[in-house]
Every structure is written in C-alpha cells, then in structure tokens.
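Progress against Task 2.4 (sequence-to-structure conversion) is shown through the following example record, which the project officer requested during the mid-term review.
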Amino acid sequence: MSVDNKVPEIRIKNFSGKWYEVALSSVIDVRSGKDYKHLGKGNIPVYGTGGYMLSVDSALSNDEDAIGIGRKGTIDKPCILRAPFWTVDTLFYAVPLPGFNLDFLFCLFQKIEWKKHNESTGVPSLSKIAINNVPVYATNELEQTAIGNYFQKIDALINQHQQKHDKLNSIKKAMLEKMFPKQGETIPEIRFKGFSGEWEAVQVGDIAKTTIGEFVKQTRQNPNSPYPVFNGGKSFTGHYDDYNNEGDKILVSARGANAGFVNYQKTRFWAGNSCYSIEINEKSEYHTIFVYFSIKRIQHLFTDFQQAANIPSISKGDVEKFKIMIPSFKEQTAIGNYFEKLDNLINQHQQQITKLNNIKQACLSKMFV
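Structure tokens generated for the chain above:
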C-alpha cells in the first residue's frame, strides 16, 4: 500500500484516483447484541464470538446484513452476518451506512489489528467508541463493490474446499470406526466385497522392529535442508542435511505433551531421541499403511501407558506390546490403499485452502491503502 499517495499498490482495472481517510463511525453503524434466553426455538440463527450457537424465533436484524465483531472475549475474528440474525451481548454487529459495500468493509475489518484497540487488561474487550474511532481508507462505491466481489469469490472458493475437506474427514472418521473390528470383536462392521473370516490380534512387537532416534541439535537444522526432523511433536520440527531412517515407517512420539501421537513418513527422515520409528519386518505379510491406520485410529490408548506425572512418556516396551487386529495381506492392502487415497484427497483440499488463504492475505495487503 501507499499511504502517502493514498492509492493501493494493486488496483482493479479502470479504477483510479486517491482513496480518502475516514473513521469507521462514518461508514458503519455499530449496534449491540442482546440476551436471547427469553426467545423461543425457531429458524433465526444466533451468533456469539465463537460463531453460530442456536436458532430462535426472532431477529435483531431482519433485513440488514452486517459484520460481527466481538465486544468481549474474541475481538479479532470479524464475520459476515446475513439477515435475519440475532447476536448475543458479547458480539456487536456493524451495519454499513449508505454508500458503503458490506464485502469491502468486511475486508477492512479483517485488516484491522483489533487487539491494539483492546481496552481491558483482563478479558479482551472493545467498545463502540473504540471501534468508531478506528481510521480506515475508503474509495468510491463502484470500486468498493468490485473489490468486495473479488474477495467474496475467494472466500467462496475457500469455503467450498473447506466443506469438501470437512466432509472427507467425516467420512474417514466414520470408516475408521466401521472398517476395523470394535473392541472385543474379530470382524469389522463394513468390509470390501470378497473378504471374509476373522481378524487376528497381534502385538506391534510381533510384526515390527521399534527403535528410538538420536539427539537433535537445533544448530544443525536448516529450513532449506531436505530431510524432515521428527522429535516428539505432532509434525516435523525442522530439516536436516542428514537422515537416520529410510522411509515407509510409522512414528510414535516418545515423550512430552504429545506422547503417543502417531505419524507415517513415506520418505527418508531424521528421528530424534523423543521419537520411536516402527519398521514392519515382513512387508509381504503386513502392509505398513494398514498397520499405521490400525495404530493411529486408537492412538489414544497410548495414554494408558504414559509413565511420568510431569512429563508424559511411553516406553519402547509400551509400543511393542500395543495390540492391533490384522486380516489377510490382501485385505490389509485394500484397506490401507483406501485410507491413503482419502488422506491424499483431504491433503489436496487443505493445500488449496492454504494457497487461497495466502492469496487472500497478499491481496488484502496490496489492494488497500
């Protein structure tokens, strides 16, 4: 942006001229939410600072869309509210004044660093006065509409990918429940066609070799190095120039807040001394991806083994005696491939969400003064 010149760095074609500075009080009417407990059930959504809460039979705003902004608690997560709606007393709703576009103003609200306007030393709080006094730069209504429409399209794409991402995650969660035998049973509820017979209980130590990693030196980590470093967290913590494990292994966090968290690493990596690596012994009999999902779906059971009160940890023996159920290798392969494809689809949507959010943030930075 260029505040001195009062023009944005990037501009939609055919628009020119300087933007002008105004206080938010000149572009919006900030209104207070109210208690809803006296209302009956209905189809009017009630929103708080955390989002949708429930539906009632009356509206605070019947026909005016608005921007929700927290009065108390979460004050830096503005949201669009489509009429009719009701907001609780911890959520203000700001209605655009004539000549101002809702989607354009929503972009401005997302750019504002609301925590800088916090008026409390305890629970974060905003007042109408604090909101009204925030200075912003605006442009004519035609350009506002063009900008608002552009960001509305980006948000729509993000929401589409998010909905698909969430739906696939729900399918995955349901299938992990139904495609593996329940506790105490030997046959799953749902099965691929052509498979039958009981599954067999095995311990991880019966089918795989478990090793602990080596000490991680922070000074050796380099974001440009090729090999991810795993050391007790939910994901890799950095990168090394060296590796101490080949890929196609199951990882289990050994200690710390995430003790017992399970990962799978397809390519070479460095395992730290808070990370167990599990390598399947006979890969013609046991499918690594299947074994990974078998452990992952019940990783919460590792908490039963956590040994330290202050720093949770699990031992190598805990990993080796962890029990899972195993069908034939052919069925293992079918199940493993199914969940691997699901994960790939989920990751593709997550990558698109991340990419679109990055584009959005870059445009918010460059398309406004």
